[in-house]
């Protein structure tokens, strides 16, 4: 659908009627549960988030993972979507919903709750998507191909993607 005229709009409508966006609070919480699981794997590998430069593939409709990584102390997050889906209203709603997850984010990242709450207050002060992403040290690229970023070698410490591979063509 994304290559058809108006296809992105159709995908958005289908997501709101039949997909993850029909129960947005549950979708937000599930995305944060996915992030928490990823953090468990990173912890087992001895990788701590504070100071990391992260690349995410597949931002989606709201920037849950980039914002969670930002609150976990990442130096920066670059996030890529092949089609632009990021929605200001949903991202701002998700940012408000993050408040209930702050203790988990602090625990998972090894940051103090005070640091995470301070950074969260800064994010909550943003009134637009652009201001929010800037405050969170997130660079969003769409439409863009994460396989062709032109980033210099060594400029990313961690690449991640959740719920994206099922959308990638095998070739």
Describe it.
- The protein is an alpha/beta fold and 171 residues long.
- A 4-stranded parallel sheet has the order 3-2-1-4.
- Helix 2 runs parallel beside helix 5 and helix 5 crosses helix 6.
Produce the secondary structure layout:
Layout: H1 7-17, H2 24-44, E1 53-57, H3 64-71, E2 76-80, H4 88-97, H5 102-109, H6 113-124, H7 129-135, E3 138-141, E4 158-160
Parallel strand pairs: 1-2, 1-4, 2-3
Helix pairs in contact: 2-5, 5-6
Provide a compact summary of the structure.
With 171 residues, the protein is of the alpha/beta class.
Q: What is the string of SSEs from the N terminus onward?
A: HHEHEHHHHEE
What can be said about the biggest beta sheet? 4 strands, parallel
Annotation, overall tally of beta strands: 4
Rounded Rg? 16 Å
Distance separating the two termini: 18 Å
What's the average pLDDT? 90
Strand content: 5-15%
**Overall body shape:** globular
Structural class: alpha/beta
Strand order of the largest sheet: 3-2-1-4
Number of helices: 7
Q: What labels would you give this structure?
A:
single chain; 171 residues; 4-stranded parallel β-sheet; 4 strands; 45% helix; globular
